[in-house]
Amino acid sequence: MPLHKSAEKRLRQSERRNARNRARKKELKVLLKNMQKLIDSRADKSAVEAAYRSAVQKLDRLGVKRYIHANKASRKKAQLTRLFNSYAQGE
Question: Would you state the pLDDT for residue 90?
């Protein structure tokens, strides 16, 4: 446990930030899994496209705000785009 007042504050800040980071990353994982689930269930293209757009938007936001590395966001977007395009061509 922290012994100084400033260390106690840093611990509180760290816990809040950790919870915020975990929530944002969890939200991203849910969006990615939702898109994959729609593709696996052969859902209509408009539903998959809506899931794709929301996932890309979230990746952009998290990359810009540095919750995830910008290169990781870019890589994930490219993977999602390839997945979406192959699904759209198969329809």
Answer: 79
